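We keep the chain:
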Amino acid sequence: MKNNFPHVFSPLTIRGMTLKNRVVMMPMGSDFAGHDGELSDEHIKYYELRARGGTGLIMVENVCVKYPEGSNGTTQLRLDKDCYIPRLFTLTEACHRQGALMGIQINHAGASAMSSRIGMQPVSASRFPSKAGGEIPRGLSKEEITSIAKDYGTAAKRAVNAGFDVVEIHAGHSYLISQFLSPTTNDRTDEFGGSAENRARFCRMVIDEVRKAVGPRVPISLRLSVDELVEGGNTVEDCLEYLEYLKVYKRDEDGELITNGEKGLARKMSALRSFYGYYFKHQIIQKNPTLLVDMPKLHDKAIIRLDTDEVALLLDFVESAGDHLTGQALNYYKKTRDRDIAILTLLLGTGIRVSECVGLDLKDVDFKNNGITVTRKGGNQMVVYFGDEVAGALENYITGDREAATPLSGHEQALFLSTQRKRMGVQAVENMVKKYARQVTPNKKITPHKLRSTYGTSLYKETGDIYLVADVLGHKDVNTTKKHYAAIDDTRRRKAASAVKLREL
């Protein structure tokens, strides 16, 4: 039987978060919460069982960001006060122990709230019910809109403090943000109504507040009703237009407005094309409007990598960095020194991706054949071989600090452990590489991917075999290798002058 979903059980990294698989439990109401919005024991058991079953990411049902006006039920979870954090933390820890990552959906019901439950008239963008037969809501003032956007941010901060890995903003089917986005429920004449840009303004404010609250590394998702399927409502084309307004964000440090560059736009368009392509292929939608949108042109940039002498300087520095440290900094260095050397040596000596590195288990290391088994993009496994320098660094770490460590439950097989005795994440490795590299090469922004570029270029210079480089790096298309890793220097080009003989002398 043909497998139409070959990648479903392969890892996926989003920002600094790595899912063990691509099985995601969507947020669905359970009615297990108490009437005070508190998480119940039944709730915790309910989600823990899903985590134990192998789910990669669990999205917890929508929680209220403003009570009572934003509540959409008598048994809805709340996150409008700090007192709800401890129970939610108990939930995330229980599911984390089973290997699942945790997300939560934050929401304001708007006109979907009922006055009989909340004790007041529901609020919305305008005086339109959210559904046929619903109550007539009160239109929000500008001051109230700003305040509610901040409520989303505050709730998101509480979610992160409670241990959630992802925050999802609910902007779909008849809830408050959707009521602003939809022309059927928004007839405002100020800056929050009229044009698509104005109707998306409140959504943009919420995204900005949430991003400011959770920081740059926590993934944020946005749930939209892409096609409202009602006369006069939003269509797929309208949502593509909203994308133009939602691509701009405000930098936290100085408030400067930043627009996504060509690579950021290309990534977003690629994701949209895949999404709509799937629905079009399976005849769920009749047309694919993303094919009408031109992909942004990408311009080549200079490839940053370490020179041979810089590689040696980096490893030497890590080995001797403790000579310049004292106190707590020295103690931390001693705890992580052998691990950090092993990671850096492995990245520089094999060219594996940082996601492949943090996904390694102890059983994946084979010292008999000097190889590691890595899981490539797409879920395919491959043995990558390493030299004596890598073998020495790995063996020193495994037989020393790693053997002496007692990992937390669920992390027993992880090769590289954090100081919290958990499997290291992508962000932790990135931070470690940057910490050491900026001391050696302050003028180069070195990341784990730059170490991969360094390896790929060195391998090509030594072998001259572009297909070998592509195979070792796990590239499906050799053109990718040529473009990003195989820099042909002037010395190699000069060899072409004498390589071909026209006549025998």
Summary: The chain has a mean pLDDT of 85. DSSP finds 18 helices and 15 strands in the chain.
